[in-house]
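Deliverable D5.2: sample structural annotation.
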Amino acid sequence: MSRKPVNIPGSRKDTSPPRSARELVGRVLEEQARRFPEIEPIELDTSGLDERDSALAHKLYDASIRRWLTLEFLIQQGLRRPFRELEAGVQAALILGSAQIVLLDRIPVHAAIDEAVEWVKRRVRPGAGGLVNAVLRRVAEGVGDRIDDWQDDLDSIPLADGARRLVGIRLPEDAKERLSVATSVPMPLIERWANDLDREAITTACLHGLVRPPTILHVRHARVPLPEDWLSPHAVEGHAVWTGPRDGLTELLSCRDDVWVQDPSSSSAVLSVADRRPGLVVDLCAGQGTKTRQLRACFPDAEIVATDVDPARYSVLSGVFAGDERVRVKPMDAVRSEARGRADLVLLDVPCSNTGVMGRRVEARYRATPASLKRLRGIQRQIIGDAVGLLGAGGVLLYATCSMDHAENQSQARWANRHLGLGASRERQALPGGMEAVRSVDGSYSVVLSPGGGGGA
């Protein structure tokens, strides 16, 4: 799902533009609390803030959303009623205040508490200030010093870099529940993964989701040298970590079509079929064109057609490839009509739960409910079924997700075999891992689905 820049309105009591980072983030968190766990994937609109406050707003929001369940657990220790029964504005004040106390060392505790108290008094009601003050003081008393590592113990929580001791607070005894609280990954997800993955893999994935991910460039097809001072080689060949300034990256990408932002795990799907020689390639769920760029580079002699059903993504896609001689962006109906029975390779980078990219899509972990998974699986099967008719003789589907869930990955390949007679080959799954930037990889899955391969799954 693409992120749209929005400034979500909160209470009707104050519709004036936010004057500070905390004001902006508090309003957005208030609305997210009303929706939780179906929170919206957004980009903050910080256009009304100066550069310093804008950076602070992004940091506050990321910490609050990324560690919502951890913070909720700590907050609950000072409450007599369930956290989620509180008014949304009170929840927002407590989450935002706790995020600063627990996760952001450079913000003084008294400042975090005072700001939260004053905000909730203005935003919700004057009487809410006393509750927020008392609970945040309890949170402050419950967190101790930083330590080097998290050992999956009961009296500390992991951080992106190290861990923090708890004082007078103990995490749950149950191992799965403890991991859920410590890493802010919902229990249903952990229990689902436990059916197919070992505890070490699950723990690694959960911890990987605590770290703000690096910007990784796909440089395999670079035609001329890149700025070495701003790049560090990634452990996966053909990729590099961007270490330079954001404006430098923007300038680089605006003038180069031979490098692009892409995690190694994402690029591995197309690489798995790089030995093929397709004449017509269809990217049926192209999004904003990341894998379309890779298809163009991997198959220089192919005709490439890209589309997406989402109007916003289709608009971006059209702009990215405007005037491109080898990539044609067309509406879905036109693609289905013109490519029917002709495609040699159809890429299905399907909508998914995004559980393999929790570090990048921080809200995805909360939205990946059983109901959401059921809906997504139906969409994925519909896309597979509709795509089969595009294939020509010898053509194949390349099915890909950025999910860790067996139900969206291997189970879908088995379904395609049973119901559509598609054989599976070149199946691969990567799990999130690597806490160092040069070793960081997201989670992903891909499989080649071929007609007439009934026993190949």
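Annotation notes: The chain has three domains: 4-182, 185-213+265-457, 215-262. The chain has 17 helices and 16 strands.
The annotation will be released with the project's public dataset once the embargo ends.
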